[in-house]
Amino acid sequence: xxxxxxxxxxxxxxxxxxxxxxxxxxxxxxxxxxxxxxxxxxxxxxxxxxxxxxxxxxxxxxxxxxxxxxxxxxxxxxxxxxxxxxxxxxxxxxxxxxxxxxxxxxxxxxxxxxxxxxxxxxxxxxxxxxxxxxxxxxxxxxxxxxxxxxxxxxxxxxxxxxxxxxxxxxxxxxxxxxxxxxxxxxxxxxxxxxxxxxxxxxxxxxxxxxxxxxxxxxxxxxxxxxxxxxxxxxxxxxxxxxxxxxxxxxxxxxxxxxxxxxxxxxxxxxxxxxxxxxxxxxxxxxxxxxxxxxxxxxxxxxxxxxxxxxxxxxxxxxxxxxxxxxxxxxxxxxxxxxxxxxxxxxxxxxxxxxxxxxxxxxxxxxxxxxxxxxxxxxxxxxxxxxxxxxxxxxxxxxxxxxxxxxxxxxxxxxxxxxxxxxxxxxxxxxxxxxxxxxxxxxxxxxxxxxxxxxxxxxxxxxxxxxxx
Length: 468
Hints:
Blueprint: E1 2-5, E2 15-19, H1 32-43, E3 48-52, E4 57-62, H2 69-88, E5 93-98, H3 103-113, E6 131-136, H4 140-161, H5 169-183, E7 186-190, H6 192-197, H7 201-207, E8 215-221, E9 232-236, E10 238-242, H8 263-277, E11 284-293, E12 305-307, E13 313-315, H9 323-333, E14 341-346, H10 350-356, E15 361-365, H11 369-382, E16 386-388, E17 406-407, H12 415-424, E18 431-435, E19 441-442, E20 452-453, H13 458-466
Parallel strand pairs: 1-6, 2-4, 2-5, 5-6, 9-11, 9-14, 10-11, 13-17, 14-18, 15-16
Antiparallel strand pairs: 3-4, 7-8, 8-11, 12-13, 15-18, 19-20
């Protein structure tokens, strides 16, 4: 869908007027009878009002007069609701007239709600809405930013929604190359030979049960005017499909949607796309270790001890705790960049989803409090809200092994935290861990969030880097 700046409302344009009260209704836009009708509907607490002018339809949408993050989220939801109305009416293009601060959020809701994943349908029922013209005080650069960030989020959704029959570890690296060429970030992909030479024992162990080789992709956006001397590194879990390995997932239906176990990788890929496309002045690197996790004859087994990239040994207690193993190698590799900050993101633990559901992201780490607070602000700005969990060293007690440096599984409560503490063992820099097991994949649409992949993390990373 294309969103562009317009100069004036055409006589044949279907139009949407964004208002905060009846005082925003102008006699130059509406007849006396229409104004009377609009006021009557507003008094009846209607927030979306339609006026049929026979040749065109005009919609009036009431938004909040507030401009905080909660009002922005309501504006996104309103944008989604309007999009549903427009598609039901088979409207292809619409002009939005607004001078409100919430215009960007409203547009974002439209662009995210209008997403469809139709690749595998033989009869594709495509949404009618494909073009938006925005008239008002919003600047073209702001419209372009919304377009690029929404596109990045929708690309991430595509990646999550793709089945493993298409999106293998090799294919995800090809998709990254395609998006990098489009957005302007650089790509380097390590094959299995290179991964073996680097002794990434975690990634290699998880891959042992697969007929598909692993990949390790490095995405880099380094503008000439970068404000940071040391890079910010984003690491995303790229388990393209997870059976649990030999510790086969025991819960009914738990494997049905495990194509989403690379939601963290999708967030990093989409984040780099948005950052590059909008030319943010920060040096950012993305790392994506990718493989599937299967129980073949050569699969790694509970009780195995593996040597990681940083030479630490790990006793494997459960092969379904595989994401942390491939992430650990990537976090260890990130040390070579001497980063200013590293954030990882992963559909890592059922414990995180059980704790807060799909309503937010579980976060924890050892970075300075002001950094975590900035990330929380970005979480609010994008409504990908972060709930900070404790990161106390006492949780390391659960990771002690009798035969190796550490185990890959805690032995008590706080499973999402022990997973984070495991990963910290492979860092030597300021670090924040984000667990998106709850919001990465939805079984039904919620407001403007799509069924299936939601692209969570893309807008969060973009807003954080933009305001860094």
